[in-house]
Amino acid sequence: MPTTSPAPATVPPSGPRLWWAGARPRTLPVSVVPVAVGAALAARYVAAPWYGHLSWWRIALALVVSLMLQVGVNYANDYSDGVRGTDADRVGPLRLTGSGLVAPAQVKAAAFGCFGVAALAGLALAATTSWWLVAVGAAAILAAWFYTGGATPYGYLGLGDVAVFVFFGPVAVIGSAYVAGRPPQVTWQSALASVPIGLLAVAVLVANNLRDLPKDAAVGKRTSAVRMGDRATRVGYAVIVIGAFLLAMPVVGWPWLLLALAATAFAVPPVRAVLRGAAGRDLIPVLARTGRLQVVCGMVIVIGLLAAEVL
After folding, report:
1. Which of 163, 228, 246, 274: disulfide with 232, CB 3.0–4.6 Å?
2. Is 178 helix (H, G, I), strand (E, B) or coil?
3. Whole-angstrom distance, CA of residue 9 vs CA of residue 29
4. Per-residue pLDDT tens for 171-203?
Protein backbone atom coordinates (compact mmCIF):
# COMPACT_ATOMS: atom_id res chain seq x y z
CA MET A 1 0.00 0.00 0.00
CA PRO A 2 1.45 3.42 -0.92
CA THR A 3 2.28 5.70 1.95
CA THR A 4 2.06 9.46 2.16
CA SER A 5 5.00 11.39 3.53
CA PRO A 6 4.15 13.89 6.24
CA ALA A 7 4.10 17.52 5.21
CA PRO A 8 7.40 19.23 5.95
CA ALA A 9 7.40 21.47 8.97
CA THR A 10 7.41 25.18 8.26
CA VAL A 11 10.85 26.60 8.94
CA PRO A 12 10.60 29.97 10.73
CA PRO A 13 12.56 32.89 9.27
CA SER A 14 15.83 33.99 10.79
CA GLY A 15 17.99 37.09 10.99
CA PRO A 16 16.50 40.28 9.47
CA ARG A 17 13.58 38.33 8.00
CA LEU A 18 12.61 37.20 11.49
CA TRP A 19 12.56 40.77 12.80
CA TRP A 20 10.67 41.93 9.70
CA ALA A 21 8.01 39.28 10.31
CA GLY A 22 7.81 40.36 13.96
CA ALA A 23 7.27 43.97 12.85
CA ARG A 24 3.96 42.81 11.26
CA PRO A 25 4.41 44.54 7.89
CA ARG A 26 0.75 44.16 6.97
CA THR A 27 -0.10 46.76 9.61
CA LEU A 28 2.33 49.39 8.30
CA PRO A 29 -0.15 51.13 5.94
CA VAL A 30 -1.82 52.34 9.14
CA SER A 31 1.23 54.55 9.73
CA VAL A 32 2.03 55.58 6.13
CA VAL A 33 -1.41 56.67 4.92
CA PRO A 34 -2.01 59.41 7.56
CA VAL A 35 1.26 61.11 6.60
CA ALA A 36 0.38 61.04 2.88
CA VAL A 37 -3.07 62.46 3.60
CA GLY A 38 -1.58 65.12 5.88
CA ALA A 39 0.84 66.21 3.16
CA ALA A 40 -1.98 66.45 0.61
CA LEU A 41 -4.01 68.53 3.07
CA ALA A 42 -1.10 70.90 3.56
CA ALA A 43 -0.96 71.39 -0.21
CA ARG A 44 -4.42 72.97 0.00
CA TYR A 45 -3.34 75.92 2.12
CA VAL A 46 0.26 76.64 1.04
CA ALA A 47 1.11 79.13 -1.67
CA ALA A 48 1.09 77.97 -5.29
CA PRO A 49 2.83 76.04 -6.66
CA TRP A 50 2.07 73.73 -3.75
CA TYR A 51 4.86 71.25 -4.45
CA GLY A 52 7.46 73.96 -3.96
CA HIS A 53 6.01 75.21 -0.70
CA LEU A 54 5.66 71.94 1.19
CA SER A 55 8.41 71.04 3.64
CA TRP A 56 9.44 67.71 2.17
CA TRP A 57 12.12 66.97 4.76
CA ARG A 58 9.59 67.49 7.56
CA ILE A 59 7.17 65.16 5.75
CA ALA A 60 9.97 62.56 5.64
CA LEU A 61 10.58 63.00 9.38
CA ALA A 62 6.85 62.66 10.08
CA LEU A 63 6.90 59.37 8.17
CA VAL A 64 9.85 58.17 10.27
CA VAL A 65 7.95 59.05 13.46
CA SER A 66 4.81 57.28 12.31
CA LEU A 67 6.56 54.14 11.06
CA MET A 68 8.81 53.81 14.11
CA LEU A 69 5.86 54.19 16.47
CA GLN A 70 3.96 51.49 14.55
CA VAL A 71 6.85 49.03 14.50
CA GLY A 72 7.65 49.90 18.11
CA VAL A 73 4.12 49.21 19.31
CA ASN A 74 4.12 45.91 17.42
CA TYR A 75 7.34 44.83 19.16
CA ALA A 76 6.06 46.15 22.49
CA ASN A 77 2.83 44.15 22.16
CA ASP A 78 4.84 41.08 21.16
CA TYR A 79 7.01 41.44 24.27
CA SER A 80 4.23 42.24 26.77
CA ASP A 81 1.81 39.57 25.53
CA GLY A 82 4.64 37.07 25.29
CA VAL A 83 5.87 37.48 28.86
CA ARG A 84 2.28 37.35 30.12
CA GLY A 85 1.72 34.09 28.28
CA THR A 86 -1.29 35.41 26.36
CA ASP A 87 0.41 35.00 22.96
CA ALA A 88 0.83 31.22 23.10
CA ASP A 89 -0.75 29.16 20.30
CA ARG A 90 -1.97 32.16 18.32
CA VAL A 91 -3.31 32.35 14.79
CA GLY A 92 -1.75 34.98 12.58
CA PRO A 93 1.61 36.74 12.38
CA LEU A 94 4.73 35.25 13.95
CA ARG A 95 5.24 36.19 17.60
CA LEU A 96 8.89 36.71 18.43
CA THR A 97 8.52 36.28 22.20
CA GLY A 98 5.65 33.82 22.32
CA SER A 99 7.34 31.52 19.80
CA GLY A 100 10.55 31.46 21.83
CA LEU A 101 12.60 32.46 18.77
CA VAL A 102 13.83 35.71 20.35
CA ALA A 103 14.64 36.45 23.98
CA PRO A 104 12.08 38.79 25.60
CA ALA A 105 14.78 41.30 26.55
CA GLN A 106 15.80 41.64 22.90
CA VAL A 107 12.23 42.28 21.78
CA LYS A 108 11.76 44.87 24.52
CA ALA A 109 15.02 46.56 23.50
CA ALA A 110 13.88 46.63 19.87
CA ALA A 111 10.60 48.28 20.90
CA PHE A 112 12.35 51.00 22.88
CA GLY A 113 14.90 51.43 20.11
CA CYS A 114 12.05 52.21 17.70
CA PHE A 115 10.49 54.59 20.22
CA GLY A 116 13.88 56.30 20.57
CA VAL A 117 14.20 56.86 16.82
CA ALA A 118 10.63 58.22 16.73
CA ALA A 119 11.43 60.55 19.64
CA LEU A 120 14.55 61.94 17.94
CA ALA A 121 12.70 62.56 14.67
CA GLY A 122 9.85 64.13 16.63
CA LEU A 123 12.24 66.44 18.49
CA ALA A 124 13.60 67.65 15.16
CA LEU A 125 10.06 68.41 14.01
CA ALA A 126 9.21 70.20 17.25
CA ALA A 127 12.39 72.29 17.11
CA THR A 128 11.48 73.57 13.65
CA THR A 129 7.72 74.04 14.14
CA SER A 130 6.29 74.10 17.68
CA TRP A 131 7.38 72.60 21.01
CA TRP A 132 3.85 71.43 21.84
CA LEU A 133 4.61 68.51 19.52
CA VAL A 134 6.89 67.14 22.26
CA ALA A 135 3.86 66.55 24.49
CA VAL A 136 1.99 64.89 21.64
CA GLY A 137 4.94 62.61 20.88
CA ALA A 138 5.38 61.67 24.54
CA ALA A 139 1.68 60.79 24.78
CA ALA A 140 1.98 58.63 21.65
CA ILE A 141 4.96 56.69 23.05
CA LEU A 142 3.25 56.16 26.40
CA ALA A 143 0.10 54.98 24.64
CA ALA A 144 2.15 52.58 22.50
CA TRP A 145 3.83 50.99 25.53
CA PHE A 146 0.86 50.81 27.91
CA TYR A 147 -1.45 49.31 25.27
CA THR A 148 -0.35 45.89 26.46
CA GLY A 149 2.45 46.88 28.88
CA GLY A 150 2.41 47.83 32.52
CA ALA A 151 0.38 46.45 35.39
CA THR A 152 -3.01 47.38 33.88
CA PRO A 153 -2.73 47.56 30.07
CA TYR A 154 -5.62 49.49 28.59
CA GLY A 155 -5.72 47.14 25.59
CA TYR A 156 -6.89 44.43 27.99
CA LEU A 157 -9.76 46.69 29.06
CA GLY A 158 -11.24 47.19 25.60
CA LEU A 159 -9.84 50.71 25.11
CA GLY A 160 -7.39 49.92 22.33
CA ASP A 161 -9.84 51.00 19.64
CA VAL A 162 -10.05 54.51 21.12
CA ALA A 163 -6.26 54.91 21.25
CA VAL A 164 -5.81 53.61 17.69
CA PHE A 165 -8.43 56.04 16.37
CA VAL A 166 -6.91 59.01 18.20
CA PHE A 167 -3.24 58.40 17.40
CA PHE A 168 -3.54 56.99 13.87
CA GLY A 169 -6.40 59.33 12.95
CA PRO A 170 -6.50 62.91 14.30
CA VAL A 171 -3.00 62.98 15.83
CA ALA A 172 -1.25 61.48 12.78
CA VAL A 173 -3.21 63.32 10.07
CA ILE A 174 -3.47 66.73 11.75
CA GLY A 175 0.12 66.49 12.96
CA SER A 176 1.44 65.57 9.51
CA ALA A 177 -0.56 68.36 7.86
CA TYR A 178 0.76 70.79 10.46
CA VAL A 179 4.47 70.05 9.94
CA ALA A 180 4.18 69.69 6.14
CA GLY A 181 3.00 73.21 5.43
CA ARG A 182 4.90 76.47 5.29
CA PRO A 183 3.92 78.00 7.63
CA PRO A 184 2.58 75.14 9.82
CA GLN A 185 -1.19 75.32 10.28
CA VAL A 186 -4.06 73.35 11.81
CA THR A 187 -7.24 73.47 9.71
CA TRP A 188 -10.77 72.14 10.03
CA GLN A 189 -10.28 70.12 6.84
CA SER A 190 -7.39 68.16 8.37
CA ALA A 191 -9.61 67.33 11.35
CA LEU A 192 -12.38 66.16 9.01
CA ALA A 193 -10.02 64.04 6.89
CA SER A 194 -8.57 62.38 9.99
CA VAL A 195 -11.89 60.68 10.83
CA PRO A 196 -12.10 58.13 7.95
CA ILE A 197 -8.37 57.43 8.25
CA GLY A 198 -8.70 56.80 11.98
CA LEU A 199 -11.77 54.61 11.48
CA LEU A 200 -9.98 52.35 9.00
CA ALA A 201 -7.06 52.02 11.42
CA VAL A 202 -9.62 50.86 14.00
CA ALA A 203 -11.03 48.41 11.44
CA VAL A 204 -7.59 46.77 11.18
CA LEU A 205 -7.55 46.32 14.95
CA VAL A 206 -11.14 45.02 14.98
CA ALA A 207 -10.31 42.40 12.33
CA ASN A 208 -7.28 41.38 14.36
CA ASN A 209 -9.26 41.15 17.61
CA LEU A 210 -12.09 39.26 15.94
CA ARG A 211 -9.58 36.65 14.75
CA ASP A 212 -8.16 36.33 18.27
CA LEU A 213 -11.48 36.61 20.12
CA PRO A 214 -11.77 33.01 21.42
CA LYS A 215 -8.19 32.88 22.71
CA ASP A 216 -8.32 36.41 24.12
CA ALA A 217 -11.47 35.50 26.06
CA ALA A 218 -9.78 32.36 27.38
CA VAL A 219 -6.76 34.25 28.77
CA GLY A 220 -8.74 37.19 30.17
CA LYS A 221 -7.78 39.72 27.51
CA ARG A 222 -10.94 41.85 27.42
CA THR A 223 -10.62 43.52 24.04
CA SER A 224 -13.62 45.35 22.62
CA ALA A 225 -14.37 42.23 20.55
CA VAL A 226 -14.49 40.09 23.70
CA ARG A 227 -16.70 42.64 25.45
CA MET A 228 -19.10 43.08 22.51
CA GLY A 229 -19.23 39.46 21.44
CA ASP A 230 -18.77 37.85 18.06
CA ARG A 231 -21.89 39.05 16.23
CA ALA A 232 -21.79 42.66 17.40
CA THR A 233 -18.09 42.88 16.50
CA ARG A 234 -18.81 41.69 12.96
CA VAL A 235 -21.57 44.25 12.49
CA GLY A 236 -19.35 46.93 14.02
CA TYR A 237 -16.58 46.11 11.56
CA ALA A 238 -18.95 46.56 8.61
CA VAL A 239 -20.29 49.86 9.96
CA ILE A 240 -16.77 51.21 10.54
CA VAL A 241 -15.50 50.27 7.08
CA ILE A 242 -18.48 51.53 5.10
CA GLY A 243 -18.79 54.61 7.31
CA ALA A 244 -15.15 55.52 6.66
CA PHE A 245 -15.64 55.62 2.89
CA LEU A 246 -18.85 57.63 3.25
CA LEU A 247 -17.11 60.15 5.50
CA ALA A 248 -14.30 60.51 2.96
CA MET A 249 -16.77 62.00 0.47
CA PRO A 250 -17.19 65.45 2.05
CA VAL A 251 -13.41 65.66 2.46
CA VAL A 252 -12.76 65.53 -1.30
CA GLY A 253 -16.00 67.20 -2.42
CA TRP A 254 -17.61 67.15 -5.86
CA PRO A 255 -16.92 65.44 -8.24
CA TRP A 256 -14.22 63.42 -6.47
CA LEU A 257 -16.71 62.06 -3.98
CA LEU A 258 -17.83 59.79 -6.83
CA LEU A 259 -14.36 58.24 -6.70
CA ALA A 260 -14.80 57.59 -2.99
CA LEU A 261 -18.19 56.04 -3.68
CA ALA A 262 -16.71 53.77 -6.36
CA ALA A 263 -13.87 52.78 -4.02
CA THR A 264 -16.36 51.23 -1.60
CA ALA A 265 -16.35 48.25 -3.98
CA PHE A 266 -12.99 47.30 -2.48
CA ALA A 267 -14.70 46.99 0.90
CA VAL A 268 -17.19 44.40 -0.28
CA PRO A 269 -14.98 41.25 -0.06
CA PRO A 270 -13.69 41.76 3.50
CA VAL A 271 -17.05 42.97 4.82
CA ARG A 272 -18.83 40.04 3.19
CA ALA A 273 -16.31 37.57 4.68
CA VAL A 274 -16.72 39.02 8.17
CA LEU A 275 -20.53 39.11 8.04
CA ARG A 276 -20.63 35.54 6.70
CA GLY A 277 -18.73 34.28 9.73
CA ALA A 278 -15.09 33.97 8.67
CA ALA A 279 -13.06 32.96 11.72
CA GLY A 280 -9.53 31.97 12.72
CA ARG A 281 -7.16 31.64 9.78
CA ASP A 282 -9.91 32.71 7.37
CA LEU A 283 -9.64 36.19 8.89
CA ILE A 284 -5.96 36.55 8.02
CA PRO A 285 -6.71 37.64 4.42
CA VAL A 286 -9.45 39.90 5.79
CA LEU A 287 -6.83 41.62 7.94
CA ALA A 288 -4.60 42.14 4.89
CA ARG A 289 -7.51 43.46 2.80
CA THR A 290 -8.49 45.85 5.58
CA GLY A 291 -4.98 47.30 5.57
CA ARG A 292 -5.29 47.76 1.82
CA LEU A 293 -8.64 49.49 2.31
CA GLN A 294 -6.88 52.24 4.23
CA VAL A 295 -4.45 52.62 1.35
CA VAL A 296 -7.35 52.85 -1.12
CA CYS A 297 -9.23 55.39 1.01
CA GLY A 298 -6.06 57.41 1.55
CA MET A 299 -5.33 57.43 -2.19
CA VAL A 300 -8.86 58.64 -2.91
CA ILE A 301 -8.44 61.52 -0.45
CA VAL A 302 -4.98 62.42 -1.75
CA ILE A 303 -6.13 62.33 -5.39
CA GLY A 304 -9.23 64.38 -4.59
CA LEU A 305 -7.29 67.02 -2.64
CA LEU A 306 -4.44 67.38 -5.13
CA ALA A 307 -6.72 67.31 -8.17
CA ALA A 308 -8.79 70.11 -6.70
CA GLU A 309 -5.58 72.07 -6.07
CA VAL A 310 -4.18 71.52 -9.57
CA LEU A 311 -7.42 71.98 -11.47
Report:
1. 228
2. helix
3. 31
4. 999 999 999 987 778 888 899 999 999 999 999
